[in-house]
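User: Fold both of these, please.

Assistant: Here is the first one.
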Amino acid sequence: MTFLSLKKTSLIIGLTGLLLLLSALGFEYSNPELFLSSSLILIAAGSLFYFASLYGNQLSGIKNNQVWFHALSSRGDWGWLLGLVLTGFYVAIYWFPEVLGYSQEGSSGLVQLFDPLSYLLNGKPATQWFLYGSLYTFAILLFGVKFIWKYRHNRYQIIRTLSVMFFQFGFAFMIPELLSKLNPELDYFAKDLKNMWPLNYYFLDEWHLTNLLNGGNLGMFFLIFGLALIFVISPILTYFYGKRWYCSWVCGCGALAETAGDPFRQLSSKKISVWKFERWMIHAVLVFVFITTIATVWSFLSAHPNQSFMTKEQFIIGVVVFLILIMATLFYWKRNGFDKDARYGLLSIGIIIIAILSVHLFSGKDHILFFPSYKFQQWYGFGIGAAFSGVLGVGFYPILGSRVWCRFGCPMAALLGMQQRLLSRFRITTTNGGQCISCGNCSTYCEMGIDVRAYAQRGENIVRSSCVGCGVCSAVCPRGVLKLENDTMENRITDVPYPLGNKL
């Protein structure tokens, strides 16, 4: 079979499976197990054959041939169409699940098609969220194979991709569903074992805290483990490995961006104006999330004073003291050469302290400031959790690149990025900058919009809070200029006075 015939045949097989899956929107299948398994098998087989036709007969190495000439990967008509389809799917998931067939009285359509898998894993009928989680995981596993095949010459990329596939399939999908089946008497208190604030904004919500506290030993384990992730495990791992340990090795959002979003990574804007907007946007989101979380916990302590070892007053005092200590440490540590990141950090902490004191002084049992308590999390759940991370974050892959959510909206990325910039051993070094030929591959395929070439030309280490350590810049460099390292803090940030490019 020739290359073109294999490619066409694989496309026909995959599209047949996709059409079979989508036909559930209009038809009721008497045997959903058969139709679901058939559609997924056809999609997987067609995709794998297509990947084989792309990379099977080629030498190892990065192949981005004609990426700017394909309508799908260069903001052409097919790219816009795909963006509209993905956006429409997310809108339906969040606000119009009945379009997909979901109903509390009994689902139909596409949601019902996943009932056999849902009963197998958790013993309950499928919901729009189970449908979403299943397709999300399926996409990461399928396109993860493509990513590994494409980057098979690079050991780091293979291990990293296997890691995100493992964490998404096991910790984010399979284990929570099985726990729900094994503990039917308990409320479903864990959607994702990577249960870490602030990405999982619901971790400190009243309903989630109540379920954890009432969940026996298992619930207490998840509560303690989640707090340990926030205050102990994450800071330690970020110090040694940078934010990449989470953003590029564990996070489900990053997993989808790296695998399914790989064809669109070159679409991330490298403009200085976009970078400045990114800095303000993502840190504003972090401040908002922090204030919202504090207000939510304060409201929980007000409504359930007997379920905690501390009062709301002690909680507020503890948070303020903690933030003041951070401010003092940051000011002392960065007293010489106080850079922009440190100043933004101090400003953010100051705003948070003022907001926390305002919450304590002007809030009651059922209201926070001048709004009902539940409104805060509703606003965040709608604006950030749904519209930003879903509709814009994934729906705009073909338009703005694969890391829109990670660049502009993810509070987890902002928090880890601040630590990575100020207190982390991770950096990307330009070990032999004189070998740089200014091809621009590194900048083109940086999904976070970093002008890597400007650093490489000056022989300057790359230490940026937005860098997720995906390592693709290093993988696509034809001269071996870039290298990911975890070294000492000494001389981590270099400032080489070369007259090339702009100072970043």
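And the second sequence with its predicted structure:
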Amino acid sequence: MHVEDGNGGYFMEQKQEKFSTIGYIAAALGMCIGTGNVWRFPRICAANGGGAFILAWTIAMLVFAVPLLSTEMAIGKKVRLGCIGSFRDFGGKRYTWMGFFVAAVCFFLMSYYCVLQGYCIKYAVKSVASFETNLTTDTTAAIWTSFTDSPAQVIFFHAIGFALACFIVYQGIAGGIEKFCKVAIPALFAILVGLSIYAVTLKGADQGLQYLFTIKKEYILSPNTWIQAFIQAAWSTGAGWGFIITYSNYVGEDEDVPTSCLIMGLGDNLGAILSGLVVIPAICALSATPEAATEALSQGNFGLTFIYIYQLFTTIPGGRFISFIFFGLLAIAAITSLFSMIEVGVKCVVDMGVARKKAVVAVCFAGFVVGCFSAWSLNNIDNQDWVWGLGLLISGAFIAILAIKYGVEKIRTEEVNAKGAEIHLPKWYFNTCMCIMPVLVVVMVGYWLLQTREWFPDTWLNPFIIQDNTGTVLLQFGAVIVVGLALGKFFNRKTAKGRITKEENCR
């Protein structure tokens, strides 16, 4: 079948694979039950008051993630294009740059996410090949520093991670992503359940359980808790990443949007809570003193996992095996999430007439090259986590703006609550959440960026310093937006037309 290219010419439409219903949910959960849950959730939860954060994060799931996921799924099913084409056809050519921004956010997340996967692979291998017992935190800190101070080593494991992900995605939707996720996701849940049972039955684990589920007033009243909760909701569910828009290209016409998205949200919640039950009670139970446990839980992005948890594994019977299982779990969780990020870029390239396998290789190679920046130092990867974590909120706001342009109620009645939907999202809930989302994002991101004036009073606007400041966010966001605007006409011309008609768009 030939498809008009938007400039009077035509190119060949490529054969579109399909997910089965189970495969689609497994692949989507593969994104949700990733390191965003296993690695990120426990440390963010611990740093933001435990129970207070869980409450805020649950609300964020309902207000931000579920309506946004439903909208993304509706768009993907309707248009049958990637992010760039979906924004163009759903909103008009003036919105194409927004679709590029969403795809770019996912690409940059992918590029540093694979570095994290490399860390996990390294420690899984180390647990088998060179595991030592009864190490101190000073020793495990030295091991971590020795590894991360060697860019060649980090890039090597970064390359292994991308090679594995590229190989599986290269096999296609049904033969690669779906096939792997159908096995990996049940295995992930099984391992999480087993590790959580082990952790909560340890002597002293009750301190961790109390910390995890006690709601502290001072954290509930802290804006930082809520901002982190919304970022975590986006991070762990994939809301705003564009991957649901992409994956929904490969589902059947009768796929139940609300039910699928609620399963994603609930599955994500379950995976995150199980991860919290693995990490926090274990830290409290195995630490020598309550003070040591508090110190461990207060560690930043990487210290909790690769210094303190690894050290604890060296002090317990069967530690080598448990360490291998834990870091192997992290590696599997990372690769299932990586599939989704790669596919977002691949679909956008395929929409422009490039053969799928060539697109997979090109996107993976580009992601590897860009990811080498994050692999070079911990400061670099921390910067990318900061910038593109905020980028997810902006992406979510852009998708909400697209929905408002098209008609929120129209999306709800015609696409979300379509024939066959077993659950119908109420008008008051869906429409309110989608309409307030852009304002909510502006307030949260604005507040967060202004905080950097207190953190870095002399350099908070300096874009050329690798630190978590406002300047670096504005520089990187600005660069992506400028490129998106500059290439807008090119994308509009080269991207295939989707199934939505001009009449539908303007109705």
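The chain has one domain: 31-494.
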